[in-house]
Each structure stands twice: as C-alpha cells, then as structure tokens.
C-alpha cells in the first residue's frame, strides 16, 4: 500500500527578511543561555541563520528548541515585531539591533519597551539610553557579543542590574546599583564569547 505523501509547507519556500533572521538569532541566544544549545551549536546555527534565504532554512535551526519556554517575544502573523506597551509619543519601540561585521547604534530620542535584543557578531552595537523614552518599569537588554562588542550607556538616575557571563571576554562594568525613586530599572543579561559587553553611567547631555 503506497504511503501517502505529505504536502510541502508552502511557507518554507518563501524568502525570509532581515527581521526573520534577527528573530532566529534571539531564539538561539536564549536557547544557549538556558543551556539548550552548547557554544559550538550556537555558533554553527548562528552562522547558518546569517546566510539563510527562506523560512524553511530558518525553521530547521529552531525546530528542536523549546521556543515557547525561552521568553522571546514572538511576532503576530503579518508583523515583524511585537510591542507590548503603548508609548506616549506614539513611536514604535526599538526592540532589536544586530551588528554582523558592521556597526549599529541606538541613541537619541528613541523609545524602548520592556525588551531590547542586541547582538554583535564580529561587529559593534552602541546603545545610548540617556535621551530614551522608557515605557516600562523594567527594560531587559539581552546581549550576545561574539567576537564583537556591545557598549551600553545609561543615565545616572536609573537602576542597573548586570547578570551576564563571558568566555574569553568581558561582561559588566561599574554601572550596577539602585536608581532614583520612580526611575526605571535596566537589566543587562546574556553572554560575551571572545567579545565584550560594557555598561556605564553617564550624565545626560545638556540641552541647548
């Protein structure tokens, strides 16, 4: 008796966008932090995610992972990002920055929500939150620095909690500590593999 064939998922042939590859990097980073992936497995899959062209290629990298338990915000159908707060300014929050052999930044009058994912793979991410609009009491910055660097500058009045780890690199800074009453708290988590994540406090720039 012939075995019935399962029709191929037409989605697997669709071309993926940069936002889709960034989402997979977030899932892989969270899986490694949780212990579901080893360092070598993370490196291998991250490299494949960078060059993946279709959803099918990306799905293969996460099919065996407990995605629902990793705490990565998943987009709704038809959307590339998820905003779980409504900023007073009406701007969409900055949620992802990926530097792949390049440099990217978050600075100026930007809006941030409860999560910001920063990944530097042989590149640099510069995050300056001194003029940012905070829309949640706690902002968690999830970092992955692989042979790259992530610099985070925060204003002096916020609370800072740094909880990442490093292998042949550095993760930390001297910014940890409580903030002023009513000010938001910034949690910095993740890892640095032959790279560095540095968090520092700096006074706000005077307005002219």
UniProtKB/TrEMBL annotation:
Family matches, as InterPro entries: DUF1707_SHOCT-like
Origin superkingdom: Bacteria
Ranges for domain DUF1707: 14-66
Name of the protein this chain belongs to: DUF1707 domain-containing protein
